[in-house]
Amino acid sequence: MLRGADERTVREAVETGDPLPGTAGFAGEIDGRLVRDVLGRQPLFVEEDDPGTWSFDRRELTAPVSVGPGVVRSLDADETASGEHPTWTLPDPDPYEDRQTGLDAVRDAVTESVASVDSDGLAVAFSGGVDSAVVAEGVPDAPCYVAGFEGSHDVAAAREAADAMGRELRVVELTHDDLREAVPELVSVLGRTNPMDIQIVLPLYLVARRVAADGFDRLAVGQGADELFGGYAKVQKAPDDPRVDADTVRGAARETVLTLPAQLERDVLALRAAGVEPVAPLLHDRVVEAALPLPDELLVAGETRKVALREAAREMVPDAVAAADKKAVQYGTYAARELDRLARQAGFKRRMDDHVEKYVKSLVADADAHADSDG
C-alpha cells in the first residue's frame, strides 16, 4: 500500500509539511489518502473516472492519470484534480555562505547515501561517468553493467573507469533486434511514444533485463545527479541558452530539478518492467537537501559541470574518473543513432515530420497485430 518509506515517517511528513523527511521517495496509500513525494521518485496513478482506484503500474488501469509530485489527495474525491493538495513543495534555500560549507555538505551527504546502500541482490548501472562511479564505490562487491552498441562511447568509458577502479564490468552489447523488441514493450509500460523518452530509456531497460536474467533484483543507478548538481549544457550556458528561463546557473539548475518527476516516472517504470527495482542513492533527501543551496560556482566553473559532486568524488574514486565527461545516455550508447537508422531503413525518412516517432508507432502496431494473430 505504501512504497519507499514507513507509515510513521510519511504520516509525520503530512502533518508537518516536511518535503524532505529523510527518505529516497515514497508513494501509495495511507490513512485513506494517496501520497507522492515532492520529487515524484515513486510513480503513482489513479483511474481518470474513478479516483478511488489506483496503482503503481499504469497498465493496471484503463485511463491512468499520474498523481502529481508533492501531492496528498483523498481517495473519496469526486474528481481527480479536485482531490489533489500540494502538501509539499521543493525548498528554495539561500545559497551557502562560503564554498567550503557547500563542499562539505555535499561530500557528507553523498558519502553517507552511497555507503548506506544494501548490496544484497544488487548490480550497478555503470557508464563510466562520475555519477555511476560514485554509486558503484558505495557497493564494492556489486557487479557493474554497461549497455551500448559496438564502438559506443559509454562502453569505452565504462571499461576505462572500471579498470581504474578495479571493478568487474559486464557489457551488454545492443543489437537492432533488441531495439525492435523493446520499443513496443516500453511504449506499453510508459504510455509514451515520443522518441526522446524511448531513446533515453532503451539502454536502461535492456541493461536491467540482463541484470534480472543474471539473478539480481535491484539495480543501483546514478539518476538525479545531473539535475541536482548542474550537469546539463543548458545549465552551464544560462542565461544565454533558450532552453531555460532562468537568468542564473542556479536558477537553471532548479528548473532541471523540477523536471525530475516526469523523468523518474519513465525510468522507474522501465526498470520495474525489466524485472528490477531501482536504487538511486543520489536522490536521497539528504543529497537533495545538500544540493539545493549550491551557488553558481559550485555547480558550474568554466567548462566544468557538477563541480561540488566532482570534488566529493575525488575522495572516493580516481581523479580521472571524478573528472570524466559523460554523454547523454541515448547518445553515449548509440541508442538514438541506431533507432534513427532503423526508422530510415523502414522507410521513415528524415524529411518526414516526426519520422522516428512514426517508426515507433509502427513497431507498436506490428506487435499488436502479431499478438492478435497469435490470440
TrEMBL record:
Domain (Asparagine synthetase): residue spans on this chain: 106-239, 258-351
Residue ranges the record marks as coiled coil: none
Region annotation Disordered: where it falls in the sequence: 1-25, 77-100
SUPFAM superfamilies with a match to the protein in the record: Adenine nucleotide alpha hydrolases-like (SSF52402)
Keywords, sorted A to Z: ATP-binding, Nucleotide-binding
GO molecular function: asparagine synthase (glutamine-hydrolyzing) activity; ATP binding
A family per Pfam: Asn_synthase
GO biological process terms on file: asparagine biosynthetic process
UniProt feature, compositional bias: Basic and acidic residues: 1-14
GO cellular component, one term: cytosol
Protein name per Swiss-Prot or TrEMBL: Asparagine synthase (Glutamine-hydrolysing)
